[in-house]
Amino acid sequence: MMLLPAPRGPLSETVVTALRGMPGGGALPFVEADPYGEDLAIALYTLYELHYGGFEGVDPGWEWDPELLRLRAQAERVFLAALRSDVDMTDLDSALEALLVEQVPGNGVSHHLRDDGTWEQMCEYFAHRSVYHHKEADPHAWVIPRLRGRAKAALVAVEFDEFGGGRADRMHSRLYADLLDGAGMSSEYLHYLDDVPAPAIAIVNMMSLFGLHRSLRGALVGHFAAAEITTAPSAHRMAQALQRLGADPRCVEFFTEHIEADAVHEQIMRRDVIGSLVQEEPELTADVVFGIQATELLEGRLAAHLLSAWAAGESSLRTRLRWLVSQNG
């Protein structure tokens, strides 16, 4: 269990202050916030974490406290409305095909890290991704009871691989912890949450939002497919980047594991999960597309943040990495 994160504005201050007390108190006022800003991002992440590992010293009763859930619903409406407004909806085939197109020459984060990235930039990237990879595949598990038939069975097969095929040491979240250890960073659960800005946090909030709402099950499937389809090529570039930088083999292994696994998962997600889902519930097709495009939107926002910071010679984190501070005394 982790400590409560530091607030980043009045909304997250309301959430964190409430969680330091006991559930069942008075009304918790909602404060308007930028849907992609720091305040709403950390507020939602904190609220969602109550459904994952929780926080040290926080009463478990807060997970289903009516006032806290009301506050969360208001924050979710702001975030979801922005996502729906900012995606360009298309048909399902076009959305899936777009995921398979690799730009030549590429100019994404993995391209930069492979060709020109520094070790410090690589470690910043590790910190950004830690807020998801420490709970890798957990948000997707919520959709399992909301599917049926072939779509459910196929998605469970993918999840089984994500959870290490039954081996704790091969769980992808464990492999990421090993990566952090290999990089000389802290592998403690969500250790870098206070360092990571909103663009990385928003991606995890989207997954939690989709996973916790049955009405958004199609969007969760779309997100999961987008993640699996696009991972293998970027993982290959990340492995090349780490080899160029002479990284610990544990860092490389996390990405080489995803090169092969996600190439297989791509086919399962496209054919068996999405194909079966839209055949049985065609009314969910638009939600699947929304999940794909919302994922691409937020991943694009994170990439823009990283690359612009690095191009300016600045850190992409809210604070310098604590492992660098400790190394330098």
| SSE sequence, one letter per element | HHHHHHHHHHHHHH
**Secondary-structure class:** mainly alpha
Mind telling me the C-alpha Rg? 19 Å
Tally of contiguous helical segments = 14
- The global form is globular
The rounded distance between the terminal residues' Cα atoms is 27 Å
| Helicity level | 55-70%
Unreliable residue runs: 325-329
What's the assembly state of these chains? single chain
Strand residues, percent = under 5%
What is the number of beta strands?
Answer: 0
Q: Mean pLDDT, as a whole number? A: 93
Largest sheet: none
Outline the structure in words.
The longest helix has 32 residues, at 249-280. The chain is mostly helical and 329 residues long. It is built from 14 helices and no strands. Helix 6 (119-133) packs parallel to helix 10 (198-212).
Question: What key attributes describe this structure?
Answer:
329 residues, mainly alpha, 64% helix, disordered C terminus
Topology:
Layout: H1 10-19, H2 38-49, H3 66-86, H4 92-99, H5 109-115, H6 119-133, H7 138-141, H8 149-162, H9 172-182, H10 198-212, H11 217-244, H12 249-280, H13 285-311, H14 322-327
Helix pairs in contact: 1-2, 2-3, 2-10, 5-11, 6-10, 8-12, 9-12, 10-13, 11-12, 11-13
Quick gist of this model?
With 329 residues, this protein is mainly α. 64% of the residues lie in helices and 0% in strands.
